[in-house]
């Protein structure tokens, strides 16, 4: 059976594009929804161009009522009936009340080699620490921030003259390879981690 995939994003949607464009042919999954908390997110137009249904749940009217915001997200997801939810640059921290509903079925991509550098400013932190390697991680989402079982990682060397911006650009390229590879394996029922680079 083909798995239905909902993708949540807040911005331009480059990882969504990488995922959506990979779900063709014999891929065990197909996109069923792109959902954003930002009506101006560029990823919504890119999804519509690909014929993927889109929806918006603007977080701002909820004025800090995270439970109500997440209930609205859940309602949109229930309408689309996804088997898997992929966070792809979705810039809202989700509570346990939401993540528990999708336990074992929600993936996220994070721009560091977890467990290093959870949270923000990952590239600057890796450079400041003198690391020789950076990268990205796909993991199952749990209530803990940037935690959960690791499903794949891609390693990217840090050059001596790297800035956070140049490193981020190379890591993003790796994200676009890693996330589709993990999703294909995961949707096919295989949770063996994918290791690239």
TrEMBL record:
Residues 4-183 form the Formyl transferase N-terminal domain. GO terms for cellular component: cytosol. The active site is at residue 110. InterPro entries: Formyl_transf_N (IPR002376), Formyl_transf_N_sf (IPR036477), GART (IPR004607), GART_AS (IPR001555). Its EC number is 2.1.2.2. PROSITE patterns: GART. Keywords: Purine biosynthesis, Transferase. (6R)-10-formyltetrahydrofolate binds at residues 66, 91-94, 108. PANTHER family: PHOSPHORIBOSYLGLYCINAMIDE FORMYLTRANSFERASE (PTHR43369). This is Phosphoribosylglycinamide formyltransferase. It comes from Palleronia pontilimi.
